[in-house]
Amino acid sequence: LIAKCKLCGRVNSLVSVSVNWEQSGFSITRRCIYVFLSDIVKDSYKPYSIDDSEQYHPIVKFDCRGVEPTAFDPRVGWKAVGTESGTPFDDIDLSEK
User: Fold this and answer.
1) How far out from the chain centre does Cα 27 lie?
2) In CA terms, which of 5, 11, 27, 50 is 20 to 30 Å from 69?
3) In this structure, are residues 64 and 70 in contact, taking their beta carbons and an 8 Å threshold?
4) Got the DSSP string for 7-55?
């Protein structure tokens, strides 16, 4: 997730850090002294099908506090199932643009 800090205005990649709190983790902006929460909302993952390809369809929701998301870089680890064949595809790499 690429985000803009609401205090300093810098646009940075967020760095994930795992913690043992209620949230599964938090993210910090690089070169900024402030720490902000950025997490995926529990149970917000939604499947994306061929029927959704011509319209806006959210696939995940982020809870961002103190930062404003500006871009999403999906990278690796995605899964898909063939529409007609039902063939599963695991660990899809979406990092190439």
Assistant:
1) 12
2) 50
3) no
4) TT--EEEEEEEE-SSSSSEEEEETT-S-EEEEEEPTT------GGGTTS
Torsion angle (degrees, nearest 10) of CA 7, 5, 58, 79: -150
Q: Report yes or no on whether pTM surpasses 0.70.
A: no
Residue 10 corresponds to which amino acid?
Answer: R
How far apart, in whole angstroms, are the C-alpha atoms of residue 25 and residue 91?
Answer: 23
Instruction: Dump pLDDT digits (tens) for 46-68.
Output: 888 888 888 888 888 888 888 88
Name the pairing type of β-strands 25-29 and 2-5: unpaired
Query: How far is residue 7's CA from residue 54's CA, in Å, rounded to a whole number?
Result: 36
Phi then psi for residue 13, to 5 deg, are -75, 145
